[in-house]
Design goal:
The chain is an alpha+beta fold. A three-stranded antiparallel sheet has the order 1-2-3, with no helix packed on it. Strands 4-5-6 form a three-stranded antiparallel sheet. About 20% of the residues lie in helices and about 35% in strands. Strand 1 and strand 2 form a beta hairpin. The chain has two helices and six strands. The relative contact order is 0.16. It binds zinc ion. Zinc ion binds next to loops.
Length: about 110
């Protein structure tokens, strides 16, 4: 397990990390999970994350000093969209945003 990610005690399918701002909308992001609910491996540099507040794709940068997120560029997006599961996750997130525009998708809120 990477030193920057720790499993959430009651939900091991969620990894917690230091709070970061979404590089698109500045929403506070502090967890990572897989769309299929499986136990995730800690993100590494180049892994994608989908902000559920603004439904934009960001890219993890993981180094010895910590974790950062940057906006996905055109090259990143072509890689992201080349995986069918990513396309499905993006569509689902967009649908949730449309149906619950002001609501949170975090069941703890
Ligand atoms: Zn965002």
């Amino acid at each position: 397990m990477s030193e920057h990610f720790t499993p959430q005690p009651d939900e091991p399918q969620v990894l917690r990390h230091a709070a970061l701002s979404c590089p698109w909308c500045a929403t506070r992001l502090d967890s990572a999970a897989r769309p299929d609910g499986s136990i995730p491996t800690p993100p590494v540099t180049g892994d994608f994350t989908l902000c559920l507040a603004c439904v934009n794709v960001a890219v993890f940068e993981v180094g010895p000093l910590g974790v950062a997120l940057r906006q996905a560029n055109e090259h990143d997006m072509s890689l992201f969209l080349s995986r069918r599961s990513n396309v499905r996750a993006l569509r689902l997130a967009r649908r949730v945003r449309r149906e619950y525009p002001g609501g949170s998708v975090d069941r703890h809120e």
